[in-house]
Amino acid sequence: MGVRLEVNGRSIEAEKGETILSALNRHGMHVPTICSMKDLSPSGACRMCVVEVEGSENLVPSCSFPIEGPMKIMTHSPRVLRARKTNVELLLSNHPDDCLYCERNGSCELQSLSEDLNIRERRIPGKKSPHKIDKSSPAIIRDPSKCILCGRCVRICEEIMATSSLDFAHRGNELKISTTLAKPLNYSNCTSCGQCLVACPTGALIEHVQFPELEAHIHAPGKLVVAQYSSAVAVSVAELLGYKPGTDLSGIINAVLRRYGFDKVFETSFGADLMIMEQARIYQDRKKDGQDLPLITSSCPAWIHYAEQYYPGLLPFLSPLKSPQQMAGALIREWFSRAVKEEGKEIVSVVISSCSAAKTEARRMEMTRSGIPVIDLVLTTRELARMIKLSGLDLERLEPELPDAPFYSTGSAGKLCGVAGGEAEATVRTIYAQTTGTEIPASKLHRFRIHKPYREMTVKARKTEIRMGTVSGLNNAVAVIKELISGRKKLDILEVMACPDGCINGGGQPIPAEEKLIRLRSKAVYDIDNVSNMHVAHGDPLIKDIYREMLKDAGGQLSQDLFYTTYLKREVLL
Amino acid sequence: MQTDKEVLIKLAQQNPSELGPDELGQSASLKKIRVTKALVMVNSSTSGIVAGSMKTWKAIEQYAAERSIDIDLAETGSIGLSSEDPVISVQLPGRTRIFFSRITPEKVPSLLDDIFHQEVPDQHVIGQLLREGQEPWKDVPSLEDIPYFALQSRIVMESCGIIDPFSIEEYIAGGGYRAFLLTIRSYTFSEVCDLVIDSGLRGRSGGGYSTGEKWKAAFLTPSDQKFLVCNAEESDPGAFMDRTLMEGDPFRLLEGISIAAYAIGSNRAYIYIRSEYKNAIRRINNAIKVLREMGLLGDNILDSGYNLQISLRKGPGAFVCGEETALIASLEGRRGMPSSKPPYPSTSGYLGRPTVVNNVETLSNLPGIIRNGPDWFKGIGTAECPGTKIFSISGRVTLTGLVEVPLGTSFDTIVNKIIGGVGKGRELKALHVGGPSGCMVPVELMDIPVTYETLKEKGLIMGSGGIFVMDDLSCVVNTVSYFMEYMNKQSCGKCIPCREGTRRMAEILGSITRKPADEEGHTTLERFKGVMQLETLAEVMKDTSLCGLGQNAPNPVLSSLKYFRHEYEEHIFDRRCPSNSCTELRSWFIDVDLCTGCSICAKRCPAEAIIGTARHPYFIVQEKCIGCGICHEVCKFTAVYYK
Description:
The complex is a heterodimer.
Chain A: E1 2-7, E2 10-15, H1 20-26, E3 50-53, E4 60-61, E5 71-74, H2 78-93, H3 109-116, E6 140-142, H4 152-160, E7 167-169, E8 176-178, H5 195-199, E9 205-207, H6 211-218, E10 223-229, H7 231-236, H8 250-260, E11 264-267, H9 268-289, E12 295-296, H10 301-310, H11 324-335, H12 337-343, E13 346-353, H13 357-361, E14 368-369, E15 372-373, E16 377-380, H14 381-390, H15 422-436, E17 454-461, E18 464-472, H16 474-486, E19 493-497, H17 515-531, H18 541-551, H19 557-563
Parallel strand pairs in A: 1-5, 10-11, 10-13, 12-19, 13-16, 18-19
Antiparallel strand pairs in A: 1-2, 3-4, 3-5, 6-9, 7-8, 14-15, 17-18
Chain B: H1 5-13, H2 21-30, E1 39-43, H3 46-51, H4 53-66, E2 72-76, E3 88-91, E4 97-100, H5 108-116, E5 125-129, H6 147-150, H7 168-173, H8 178-186, H9 189-199, H10 211-220, E6 227-232, H11 241-248, H12 250-263, E7 268-274, H13 278-294, E8 309-315, H14 324-331, E9 355-359, H15 360-372, H16 374-378, E10 388-395, E11 401-406, H17 411-418, E12 428-433, E13 439-442, H18 452-457, E14 466-471, H19 476-490, H20 496-513, H21 523-544, H22 548-552, H23 555-563, H24 565-574, E15 588-590, H25 600-604, E16 610-611, E17 619-620, H26 630-634, E18 640-642
Helix pairs in contact in B: 8-12, 8-15, 9-10, 9-12, 11-12, 11-13, 12-15, 19-20, 20-21
């Protein structure tokens, strides 16, 4: 039902029941917000979005105030502006003045708010709360002194990731965001998914930057520095470099990384192709035996962490494979082992990933070979952008280059794993071909690409049916898993991605992660597949080569040795 | 006393005028009007226990045992005079009951000796409770005649301190549960709502919103389940009316809850109570148990087809949980943080269902309203604000305790006439009304009639009804500073203006009342700037805070700046506290003529600021002195004085 609102003297149409903020936004009127986030419950905590409503004694938070009837609203009256300004000043009175040294300098919402509100002096002096920086997690650094207590991390961790690692603790000026019993993050149930990093408006939550270590390796003699990056990185880094969002910068990345000093540049999608090959094999075996189905994917390290904590009973159903970056990493080390021995070189294996959980994953015992981590460093997309800026190269003048042989994919199957549903789709393509001997028409699986957190589809392959499903966002995953456990849902293969929409919305991705940008990233990944000539992993000549020359058989001895991992039940504090 | 369930139910159902002689007699003995042996009642509520009433209890037991006197010793609630505790009352068969104040254990034997010899002791007498069929004591004033009770009209507190809070018999014989039975037998849900709307009852927790309207909103919201929540999270420092009601007359509260739950069509009610209220919890738990056994709670109450369950939930103890949305969050097991309204709890509250949150005092009004009708209720108080309000009075006054007066009574009547004003030789400076987020009321406004509207007109709030009395020895700025620190500690921290605003305000006030590290530089200017900022901060906090806690937090500052600006100025510019209660602003000196050099002050000084040689006058080093005044307290020669 339509309602007329008078906003700043202009009349606009609004729906009954929607919030004032959504009506204003729809009509292109901007009201600043901090605590409000799409898809999360309104909190009404930051009071930035207050507006003046005629007839109301106090200012009204537009983000949570439902429209019931005609209203007269002032969004930028002197009273409103004074209130907003004073509130930001109050925040700043308890905020360190070290923007220049802050990780989020330039992308900080508090910074831009105080800029917008023309705050030019520290008007409200006062004591600042003392805080300790928590650097315990390999992925996330928490600096509570920069926290403005908007609660976005708390809500995203609870409502989207179903983890609730963080919550408010204490009262009054001692209020802080805390883990259970104020333990360091590595003791908590944090899965390192990094959604909180992306949600944080300030520098209170940042990734554990490994960039300086890389510098040291690059310039040290006798080191063979090898990089691999994923398709999700390739389609997202453009946003941070001033390119049109959704541009695939693979070629440029290859060129830059080589000039930066990397000896080899590979693609993680090669690891993904291998994973698809191995996964198809595992699926066939399990289908034949009719046990441990559905096969649940294991490519997402945050999901693995979560399952180990909360669903230990589910571990036998997980695919025993490592994540694509770890599979590629293991293969790279094996491949260069002779060079290492003969030339006395030391391999430094670097992953550039959209995922912050990959940083934690690289520290796992299971990911070592002979006690040495397979991956030395994990950088995020954001760190890659910084590296490219630091390289001083004019990207416009660089010619796109190809990655180094033999570890890149000529096809698009592995690259498809960047979006939620991509891994299931690519795996089913291979399974279908193995079962029927013919390739599945690409269009047949297009229905699987609708934009929904959970989708499922049944593919007929000869006499058998493949019931495939994909779910992203841990809260959605939990719902699906409960259905599976209760038996209300039956699937053969289930892809789980911890982050909503998959790796393209990972914890290491560019900030902000607006829905519009996520869509463009996902479109870019699908476009790679749409224009590709090779849609399946088993058809990729490089994959064929590696199996012929080295691995022999999917599921074979070397494969198991390099690619298989084990899981363990984790006991954590809540 | 064991009485048949049916007899009690029958008593509850009948009009007192229709009772036969047998039943009247039964009712009189149940009400302890007719007793067969001496009855001694001890105030065992928190105020009594704090004053040592349990020791008095033991002394009475011992007294009776030693002399082999058969007495009936019973617990009761507080009569409202907290400063006079331990209060005990004694009733001999056939005689009226006399109330005595401040009965410490050693006073018990002489007091009881006198009474059992049919004599009234000279001291400690408060008054006698005149009831029909009892012979009054000579030369003992009736309770109704002493100033403390004469000007009060006790509706809600009528039985507090008189009946045994563990005895359902006494409650029912006194007219209890007639209202609830009338409600479930004679009225539909919405009729009860209408009746309460008609009575004009308004929420007693501060907002003054019409109770009936709130019910109606919840009643009219379709839902599979509705909830009634009794807000017993009374955390205002200096407010204890809810506690006293729960401890003195728990059945009245439960009857009120039952009526309210019926009115909104709910069969699930919760009492959300502070976990610190152990005494009240014990009484409420007992009352719930007894009512279940009686069949007045549970399924199909007295074959009416109406089911009701009441459960007690202990709050973890936070000021903010008195705010209804925070209370509901806490009840759901989440952190007690308020959420934005709308949606109001009456449409979406506990577990997303329509929920009415009413305060203890509000609910305790209901039995009276139903029993006597809305017109009776409208006859008390003013037209806009009918009924009474309980004020809890503390601070620098002769008597402290509870006062129940009709709304519209002036502060002057409450503070000067009923409670006896400030101590002898002192001068009343201000009242702080409404708890930590209340307002400073200057002497000029003492005559205004106290209603929700008149207070609002003057920019004041009623709050929960706590009155903190200040005389010329109390410092306005220091008091405000204390309240602001309290508000900051109790702020849930969710919204910025409240979390950061209260903190900065407390810091500014602290800089005014505390000693500066150095007087150099621009400290005076900084302090002055601080006060200028107080006003803008206060306005923004009022304008933008999420819940009432933050919106009202600046009240003490705004009202005191309005009426007591001169005190602020004296603190800032002269660096002195007019009432000398800001310790850090006091400068102590030793009179060289009076000092004998005994050295006790130097030994006791916590800051080691006093130096000298024995048997010669000592000297206070001002730079080291923290102004605590211990030297003044310990000096036997009054040689220490302040400027």
